[in-house]
Amino acid sequence: GAITNFDSKLFKTFKLMFQNPGTLSKKIVSGIRVPYLKPFQVFVICNLIFFIFLSDTDLFRTPSKWFFNENFDYFGTTVVDKVSNITQEKNLSLTDVQKRYDSISSNLSKSLLIVLLPFIALFGVLIKRKLKFGKHLIFATIYFSQLLLCTTILYLITTSLPVPSKWFFIVPVIITTLVYYIISIKKFYKKNLLSSIGLGIIGIM
After folding, report:
1. Could you tell me which residue, 159 or 38, shows the higher pLDDT?
2. 9-19 and 39-53 helices cross at what angle (nearest 10)?
3. Residues 6 or more apart whose Cβ sits within 8 Å of residue 22
4. pTM of the entire structure?
């Protein structure tokens, strides 16, 4: 019923998140909460959707299928060379190293999803100190939920392309992250467009 009913809280919440970034946070903070899901509920649902479709790809890591096959530099040594050294030193196969890397990096990445929320909220404090930290945290939770949902959609689109490439996924995610953040700052913190763009770029960096 929550999924199929267009008058449900779920539909109203997601519709507002996509159509007007920052507006949902503004409404909830101002006391208009009954028609919408709670921020933590939104975060849990978006996390669930994200991990269902992107079980092997996270926001804060590059999976081994991409990372081990590129000439990424690792303190002066390419990743391929570093992996080769590990396989020899630890007497492990390439598959074993890939599995260990994916497991450890995936757990760390999932932890960062939770840890990042207070940091986004802290940046909000710098934007507008008069607001209580809890209100900044609401903004951070909803914004990050938007990001998770958009990332999932972009992943599903880009991976269906005839010649999938990580850049077809990474570039749109970066652009979406920045654009949504700028619009959200403008709406929630009532900043002009120029200030919002500057703050958005600083916040993303």
Report:
1. 38
2. 80
3. 139, 143, 183, 184, 185, 186, 187, 188
4. 0.72
